[in-house]
Amino acid sequence: MTQAPQVIALSCGEPGGIGPEIAVAAWQRLRQDCPFVWIGDPRHLPKGTPTQVVQHPAEATEICADAFPVMPLQFAGDNTPGTADSRNAAGVIQSIETAVALVTSGQASAVCTAPIHKKALIDGAGFAYPGHTEFLAALAGVDRVVMMLASQQLRVVPATIHIALSEVPTALTPSLLREVITLTEQGLRQQFGIPAPRIALTGLNPHAGEGGAMGHEELDWIADLIGEMRTEGLSLTGPHPADTLFHAAARKTYDAAIAMYHDQALIPIKTLDFDKGVNVTLGLPFIRTSPDHGTAFDIAGQGRANPSSLIEALRLAQTMAAARNA
């Protein structure tokens, strides 16, 4: 089977946010060694950007050194930095769909997505998904995906995301945690090239329940599920107290950690590597990465946006594509 070219399809994200300027900043840093093609309306890019239109992503490998490769889309509105324009909603959605089509057809090696503004998409195009990830899952035709936050220091997966802390004990079920463990293990093997992934799991409660003194979920079913999946051949440890799982020595003992809820996972990675964390979606039939930040309307167009997370997202997408092909 012919391998996809090592070119990443970068969707434009919200035009009024920092997406256009960090895309150009990332190109300026990476153009010698990480080709990508930007999908969006060239009018939305910073003035003076040396663009070149491409018809096929593979053209970017030759163009990237000298010009910013663009697969142009015509949006309904211009962009005003710091302001979302709902007229551009259909174009933002089309940019994501185009990126997915390019990678699923083998024309690109991975998808990287710039931040979107959900309200603008709802107002302008009736966007029916909670966010980027769910839309990508729908485009790919899969029911369950997993969010991983990754940096050079830590890979961590929250089993439950973006729900109130009071809802976590109900949402966290044996079937959900089994799916999260399975997709994480498969992703580490297939997309990160780790043949026998080591996964550590936190407990739900402080001190992993401390023998039932601080909660019973660990005793009632979490430890049993981990033991059961170990007998199936997975390299799992836990449940560990979350407050001792993320220091330097502990991180050397696993390839990824699974935490039981959002803050348990995101606080350590944002503390360790705030500017360079990357959002990776596991469970899709293609590679998808994204910077771990939002549209940052408050600094858009001011030349203050830090492109580090997007740069790392593009680099990681390239590394994952190479590992998958190998």
TrEMBL record:
Cofactors named for this entry: Zn(2+); Mg(2+); Co(2+)
Pathway: Cofactor biosynthesis; pyridoxine 5'-phosphate biosynthesis; pyridoxine 5'-phosphate from D-erythrose 4-phosphate: step 4/5
Reactions catalysed, as given in the entry: 4-(phosphooxy)-L-threonine + NAD(+) = 3-amino-2-oxopropyl phosphate + CO2 + NADH
Binding site for substrate: 132-133, 270, 279, 288
Residues binding a divalent metal cation: 162, 207, 262
Subcellular location: Cytoplasm
Class in the EC hierarchy, top level: oxidoreductase
Molecular-function annotations in GO: 4-hydroxythreonine-4-phosphate dehydrogenase activity
EC number(s) stated in the UniProt entry for this protein: 1.1.1.262
Keyword Phosphoprotein tagged: no
Alphabetized UniProt keyword annotations: Cobalt, Cytoplasm, Magnesium, Metal-binding, NAD, NADP, Oxidoreductase, Pyridoxine biosynthesis, Zinc
Top-level lineage group: Bacteria
Record carries keyword Magnesium: yes
SUPFAM superfamilies xrefs: Isocitrate/Isopropylmalate dehydrogenase-like
Pfam name, any one: PdxA
Free-text cofactor note: Binds 1 divalent metal cation per subunit. Can use ions such as Zn(2+), Mg(2+) or Co(2+).
Oligomeric and partner information: Homodimer.
Something else known: The active site is located at the dimer interface.
PANTHER family: 4-HYDROXYTHREONINE-4-PHOSPHATE DEHYDROGENASE, D-THREONATE 4-PHOSPHATE DEHYDROGENASE
Family: Belongs to the PdxA family.
Function field: Catalyzes the NAD(P)-dependent oxidation of 4-(phosphooxy)-L-threonine (HTP) into 2-amino-3-oxo-4-(phosphooxy)butyric acid which spontaneously decarboxylates to form 3-amino-2-oxopropyl phosphate (AHAP).
Name of this protein: 4-hydroxythreonine-4-phosphate dehydrogenase
Native source species: Tritonibacter scottomollicae
UniProt lineage: Bacteria, Pseudomonadati, Pseudomonadota, Alphaproteobacteria, Rhodobacterales
